[in-house]
Write a structure and sequence with these properties.
The chain is mainly α. It has one domain. It has eight helices and no strands.
Length: 250
């Protein structure tokens, strides 16, 4: 087994070399992402429309840069394969942020808020890269990349470039209807597990569904969970937005 270093890939990571979920290291990352989102959000709220647009474009472009940086690093280390394509929901979210930053399509905004935000938060809470050491390229890229998706979505909500609505949640569902069958066929053909449609991510809520419902009912259970999350996200936004409007009226 090779010595573990900053560039060590999963094939050479010995058992027990990773960080524990909700360890001090993990919690510090979560606190940092929350704090950074709040600080940048306050700064962003005080800027004019032109500066806000520039910030969004820089943030969206940075996410795409991180995706290709990861691909470049893996390729340079002869580790790039069908298992490392940017086809997970969070990887797709990076591209969604990029195109939303430049075109402001409402469809992408609904997808970002209803699907990508809760998916990214779940990935940060239950990172599937936790078997990597704390000081490793994949670990750092994982936390930074997912954290920036959260930051972008928060900024979009503050500037109202993202305007969730329970009457528009069908757009997020339509995105899934289009993309999930393609990913499913790809996963089955290449024996991969993008978007976790074949099996759950270890130590995540999806694993609970698999344990309780079995592999046969895993995907239907997964779909029901997604529908519940999408609905709750939009109901929550509607409630908060309604409270704010009521306060402003008073």
């Amino acid at each position: 087994m090779n010595d573990v270093n900053f560039w060590t890939y999963s094939d050479d990571i010995p058992d027990g070399a990773g960080f524990n979920q909700f360890s001090l290291y993990h919690i510090c990352w979560l606190i940092f992402i929350i704090a950074f989102s709040l600080i940048l959000g306050i700064y962003y709220s005080k800027q004019n429309e032109k500066k806000r647009d520039i910030i969004l474009k820089i943030t969206g472009s940075f996410l795409v840069f991180l995706i290709f940086l990861r691909i470049g690093v893996l390729y340079a280390g002869n580790h790039m394969s069908v298992y490392e394509l940017p086809l997970h929901l969070c990887s797709l979210a990076g591209f969604v942020c990029f195109f939303h930053a430049f075109f402001k399509w409402d469809f992408l905004g609904q997808v970002l808020y209803s699907l990508c935000l809760p998916g990214t938060v779940c990935a940060l809470l239950f990172p599937d890269w936790s078997y990597y050491p704390a000081f490793n390229f994949i670990t750092l890229q994982g936390f930074i990349f997912h954290g920036v998706i959260v930051v972008y979505t928060v900024l979009g909500l503050i500037g109202e470039d993202i305007k969730p609505s329970i009457f528009k949640m069908w757009k997020a569902i339509a995105f899934l209807v289009i993309i999930v069958p393609v990913i499913y066929v790809f996963d089955r053909h290449f024996d991969v597990n993008y978007m976790f449609v074949l099996r759950p991510s270890p130590d995540s809520p999806l694993e609970w569904i698999d344990n309780k419902m079995g592999s046969l009912w895993y995907l239907p259970g997964y779909a029901v969970l997604v529908m519940i999350v999408v609905t709750l996200m939009n109901v929550l936004y509607g409630a908060i937005h309604g409270f704010k409007r009521r306060d402003n009226d008073n």
